[in-house]
Design brief:
This protein has 190 residues and is α+β, with helices and mostly antiparallel strands. It contains 4 helices and 11 strands, in the order αβββββββββββααα. A 6-stranded antiparallel β-sheet has the order 1-2-3-10-5-8. Strand 1 and strand 2 form a beta hairpin. The radius of gyration is 18 Å and the shape is globular. It binds 2-acetamido-2-deoxy-beta-D-glucopyranose. GO terms for molecular function: manganese ion binding.
């Protein structure tokens, strides 16, 4: 089942490969081991108390300039790693179980989702909205291998409701009224 799903994921990755707006260039040298004492360009982690997850980069000096990065994501019981936009990536279930899914692009908006357990490996196609939800009772952790040295993270709720976008624009986008948008927005701005 897992391998069948992986094949589907791989096919989707192949289809999505040409659509990345940003990409890491090919390296100009064989390798360039990072200077771990350097103060320049240290990527930061992301922790959300509101959502209950942490995503911390795993520093591997030899990976510097090779166009990839690793992160460890911890999701507390009941917590969610909310709908986010990634570069292409592969995740590796380390501990616990977590409900993972991604949604294909418009107009299909098809949800692929399943419960991942320790040892499961999954792929996130580039640029597709995805999520992790720990709806179990034990903490869950996983490693992610990302196809960019500086992958960044776009959390849709924060980007849309925490950025100061005008309420009437958001209301039209979500086919709702300004009061509803205001109510949601308050939580992201506090
Ligand atoms: C978590 O949610 C998924 C999807 O609804 C479900 O299949 C799974 O059984 C749930 N896990 C727990 C521990 O309830």
């Amino acid at each position: 089942m897992v391998s069948a799903l992986l094949m589907v994921f791989t096919a989707v990755v192949a289809l999505a490969a040409g659509h990345g707006a940003a990409f890491d260039p090919n390296p100009l040298q064989d390798f360039c081991v990072a200077d771990s004492t350097s103060k320049v360009d240290h990527p930061g982690g992301t922790a959300s108390r509101r959502c209950g997850f942490t995503a911390l980069p795993v520093q591997i000096p030899g990976l510097n300039t090779l166009g990839g990065s690793h992160a460890r994501v911890d999701v507390a019981p009941g917590a969610v790693f909310p709908a986010a936009l990634p570069p292409a990536g592969v995740g590796d279930g380390l501990d616990g179980a977590v409900y993972f899914g991604f949604i294909t692009s418009y107009p299909d908006n098809k949800l692929f989702a399943k419960v991942l357990r320790r040892g499961d490996v999954f792929a996130v196609p580039e640029g597709l909205v995805h999520f992790l939800y720990n709806n179990g009772t034990a903490p869950a952790a996983l490693y992610a291998t990302l196809s960019s040295q500086n992958p960044g993270l776009v959390l849709l709720g924060d980007a849309l409701f925490g950025s100061g976008l005008a309420d009437d624009l958001l209301a039209k986008t979500f086919l709702t009224d300004r009061e509803t948008v205001d109510k949601i927005g308050l939580k992201f701005r506090s």
